[in-house]
Amino acid sequence: MTVNGWIQIALFCAVVLALVRPLGGYMARVFSGERTLLSPVLEPVERGLYRLAGIDRTHEQHWLAYATAMLVFHAAGFVLLYALLRLQAVLPLNPDGQGAVAPDLAFNTAASFITNTNWQSYGGETTLSYLSQMLGLTHQNFLSAATGIALAVALVRGFSRASVRTVGSFWVDLTRGTLYLLLPLCVVFTLFLVWQGIPQTLGGAVATTTLEGASQTIAVGPVASQVAIKMLGTNGGGFFNANAAHPLENPTALSNFAQMVSIFAIGAALTNLFGRSVGRERQGWAILAAMAVLFLAGIAITYGAESAGSPVLNALGLPGGNMEGKEVRFGIVASALFAVVTTAASCGAVNAMHDSFTALGGMIPLINMELGEIVVGGVGAGLYGMLVFVIVTIFVAGLMVGRTPEYLGKKIEAREVKMAMLAILCLPLMLLGGTALATVVAAGLAGPANAGPHGFSEILYAFTSAAANNGSAFGGLAANTTFYNTTLAAGMLVGRFFVIVPALAIAGALAAKKTVPASSGTFPTDGGLFVGLLVGVILIVGGLTFFPALALGPIVEHLAGGLGQTFAAGG
Amino acid sequence: MSRPSQTLFSAALVGPALVGAVRKLDPRLMVRNPVMFVVEVVALLTTILFVRDAATGAADLAFSGQIILWLWFTVLFANFAEAVAEGRGKAQAESLRRTRTETLAKRLTGRGDAYETVPGNGLKVGDVVLVEAGDIIPSDGEVILGIASVNEAAITGESAPVIRESGGDRSAVTGGTQVLSDAIRVRITAAAGSTFVDRMIALVEGASRQKTPNEIALNILLAGLTLIFVFAVASIPSFASYAGGAIPLIVLVALFVTLIPTTIGALLSAIGIAGMDRLVRFNVLAMSGRAVEAAGDVDTLLLDKTGTITLGNRQATAFRPVRGVTEQELADAAQLASLADETPEGRSIVVLAKEGYGIGARDMGHLDATFVPFTAQTRMSGVDLAGAQIRKGAVEAIVAAAGGGPVATRGSSAALAYARTASTEGVEEVRAIADEVARAGGTPLAVSRDGRLLGVVTLKDIVKGGIRERFAELRRMGIRTVMITGDNPVTAAAIAAEAGVDDFLAQATPEDKLALIRKEQAEGKLVAMCGDGTNDAPALAQADVGVAMNTGTVAAREAGNMVDLDSDPTKLIEIVGIGKQLLMTRGALTTFSIANDVAKYFAIIPAMFLGLYPQLQALNVMGLASPQSAILSAIIFNALIIVALIPLALRGVAYRAVGAGALLRQNLLIYGLGGILVPFAGIKAIDLAVTALHLA
């Protein structure tokens, strides 16, 4: 670890923090339907869209109607994307003549993109046409991100409202989120990335001759625009197979820094929207503080482990950090930071091979995802995931002040606890269940490239990434098989919708409740004590479940490495 | 008076509780408690497998046998906790049941005083019975005619008899209590089997106990956690097979049972029963556990001024003479005027004069005095001595009498202009003093001698000692206090300020009370109040916690969700404390139980996987002797901690009236941090013992 490295990390945190209030304030205005700076331009468009779709923007929905609208919308999106992938060979905008995507891969990809996971079992430039990339994937990149934000806003309304039946309109939230938030940010960010040297073209691959005289085909395409939304919307699906490690997808140190910031920007600012909506920004800062504690612990471990390098190699007289699988352009700190950010935030874009990280360095991304990606988290998903944990925390410890638990004036009762537990249950079910299945059936065992605990980590990582809707790949796992494509797709769908629907149910139940005014007898939820408690509950309730799995994967690998042992293939 | 307290584990309690613990193994009863039911099912299945293994002669029977034994102990300890809690209630129920001995009732036939003798349990609601001195009142009812002194020691523990009479706010009588003097006619209001005492028995025994809303929610959380650990443990065999090994089922079972929240699962119902029991010991009967929980949540307390905040009666606190009159003179005259006055106010004037000015009470007879009693017309009283007329009374009445003018009503300045005989100055001065006294929350009483105004006696409501501190305590707990009084706003404000309540409702009518409760509830607050009269019934029913006084009317008792047998309205404050204590105990043990998992993981995971990867020995941070001793120690700790925490569950976590922040910090330190650390030490200690005894 170097001072320079920590300065980079500190700078990253500072820039993200600086964005929290302005962006949070802007989003609060967007989702409360107020006028914003962009209203003169966008309002006619917005009104036109509502008229076209026959939507009354003043009509709000009960949580069930909200959930139904969301589900129907996603079902339609799923069918559309699946059809597009299967039919891309006969559709336009296919200069490189890509063939139809196989059924299981199309299923996996469609599930992956509507759930904001963006797990990629395919290599973008060798599998997909430009139409599939732009109309299919980019489109879902926007909508899955906007959905996540809409859902978080709906849950926030549950806390900020009192004695009402509605939680907002899914259609309005989705439209305003896309139109006022994601599109303008993406336009600006795309221009920035183009300036940094990322291609943005509809022309086909470029054939060129290298310095040695060999001929090379360089894939290009509408890269910059897709990178912008992949980061801002925490999607993570790269245009190229190498994702953000590819020089045309992430050309400079500045583009790398800006991409990391853009992953956290909206997620972090949503905590401020939450604070503003419930009338005390401090409440939002407390949530962000809990996220920050987990984030800083994670980056300290990963950066430390990567800097220390492999004990096996060190013992062989090869000192220094672990550079295997890292872009030399980025080095250890930018790679470690990127890995922690992308898994904390459900993004899944990568600029290094997580598979090649040291055991402990690679364990942090795993843990980030296993906690449910609540450390900033996916846009929206991080906030509602965190609020689910807040409900559990308040319920467990809130009784200790001698009142039935309440958060922000809302009593936490049987219904909220039931829904919160449902939401928390589905992650271990899909993650551990999927891994357990893959480690006993032949089709699953055929996947990992490594033997021993590391191979186990590869399988565990894939199911973790899918169930948590992250989408980053550890690498090393041959995942484009019928077995992995279908099981991982199932993990993604359950991991997304079995959290969203209970979260909406909580929103509905809370909105209908009265708000109890706070007094000195009320459980304080904006101080350090609460932050510590929340972190503790997240680690014990959310994290310890995965301790056996981690013990058999990265932990044993780390311990063995310390003893100078390695695991031979077949061993 | 509270009942004699029992020790937590007396021999008389433990014996039946042990039997009860075994009897509660019945799955139909266990299923009410999902966590412990799961443990029982697991214990049963492993026992069946053990028998099979024993028959086929499998290895390691001693180890798995011990684990299974501790699984059963875990279930039995949980049942024991519940049985002990119930047992404590049962002991009280026994003493109550003795009051329910078969009585004969004198049922009036409706023709004059004629009655027929029928068995007490044959009475129907609406029957009218005659109860005479020495009779036991056959069932709950309302006095419709007569007045009697009644011994209610059977239910209140208080031996001094109480008065029960028709018409007023003291008309309710309870079956099983005894009439000591006189005779009353009682209309029966409860059928056999549903009387107050019957309900009380059912409550303290826990027979009619239903899960409270918070308990239901907590059970959902515990069931959810159990399910998560099902996933965590069920996926391990696959992981192990990937690593090229297998984990014995009994080890998986041990891990599962130690991880699921058995501690709180085992003690949850005991905590609830003990909470009700604490109220009963406090001579308060809660009609449901829900009410006890609500008590902990109360945001606003409505307290009647009289009897709760102030002593029942106004008392003289000062003599304020006009210029030219000494305090001594005024005190002397006031005392003379009050010698024959038997009202509490009058007596307090005599006492003040004696204690403050050394004027001994004189005998009326010796003075040759004639007492002039108070009437509503004159609004004054006094004495006629030889050659002197001394009067005390309402200021305007005395002024008018002194001036010879008509009795002026307050504020009628035209009438006041007639008050001339006495010096205008004196009148003005007396009025000024009187106004001052009224503004300070007192009641002024003017005194005159032979038409000469001497000054004013200040009568004040005496705020109970220490009540101000109690209200400050409540404020720290986040509870707002509202004083309810029939006084005028000026007086009410002064007393409110003196007592330190947060707000007051002056000139309150029952409708005002009801409106105030509704207003508070509309803001999302929970309201507690106590009352006794029939006109309190709507407010008692509307309040979230309505404590009816046992001396109150049947209507009040039916409307409230608690009854205070001692009829002490101040108890509302303690009831809130007990409610909070119940919730805190539940929260503390839940936190403790969940925090325990950290150490259990560190005990079992390395032990479990050591055969697969010897490197995991590094996770054995406690340095446990062997994998088997580690697993056995964890499961033993898991069972013993239940027993160790039974006293805490029954007694409750100590509650101090401090802010929520301080309370949270303190409890988090003890039960959160303690919950993480204690099992590390405990498991290590048990491991040492297990190794020393060669159990594993």
From TrEMBL, chain A:
Keywords: Cell membrane, Ion transport, Membrane, Potassium, Potassium transport, Transmembrane, Transmembrane helix, Transport. The keyword Metal-binding does not apply. InterPro entries: KdpA. The keyword Acetylation does not apply. The chain crosses the membrane at residues 6-28, 63-85, 142-159, 179-198, 257-274, 286-305, 328-350, 357-376, 382-401, 422-447, 459-479, 486-510, 530-552. It holds the Pfam family KdpA. Its main location: membrane. It is a multi-pass membrane protein. It is found in: Cell membrane. The system is composed of three essential subunits: KdpA, KdpB and KdpC. PANTHER family: POTASSIUM-TRANSPORTING ATPASE A CHAIN, POTASSIUM-TRANSPORTING ATPASE POTASSIUM-BINDING SUBUNIT. Part of the high-affinity ATP-driven potassium transport (or Kdp) system, which catalyzes the hydrolysis of ATP coupled with the electrogenic transport of potassium into the cytoplasm. This subunit binds the extracellular potassium ions and delivers the ions to the membrane domain of KdpB through an intramembrane tunnel. Belongs to the KdpA family. This is Potassium-transporting ATPase potassium-binding subunit. It comes from Methylobacterium cerastii.
TrEMBL record, chain B:
The chain crosses the membrane at residues 6-22, 34-51, 63-81, 216-240, 246-271, 598-616, 628-648, 668-686. Residues 104-205 form the P-type ATPase A domain. The active site is at residue 304. This is Potassium-transporting ATPase ATP-binding subunit. It is found in: Cell membrane; Membrane. NCBIfam families: ATPase_P-type, kdpB. It is a multi-pass membrane protein. It comes from Methylobacterium cerastii. It is an enzyme of class 7 (translocase). Gene3D superfamilies: Calcium-transporting ATPase, cytoplasmic domain N, Calcium-transporting ATPase, cytoplasmic transduction domain A, HAD superfamily/HAD-like. The system is composed of three essential subunits: KdpA, KdpB and KdpC. InterPro entries: ATPase_P-typ_cyto_dom_N, ATPase_P-typ_P_site, ATPase_P-typ_TM_dom_sf, ATPase_P-typ_transduc_dom_A_sf, ATPase_P-type_domA, HAD-like_sf, HAD_sf, P-type_ATPase_bsu_IA. Mg(2+) binds at residues 532, 536. Pfam families: E1-E2_ATPase (PF00122), Hydrolase (PF00702). It comes from the Bacteria. Part of the high-affinity ATP-driven potassium transport (or Kdp) system, which catalyzes the hydrolysis of ATP coupled with the electrogenic transport of potassium into the cytoplasm. This subunit is responsible for energy coupling to the transport system and for the release of the potassium ions to the cytoplasm. Its EC number is 7.2.2.6.
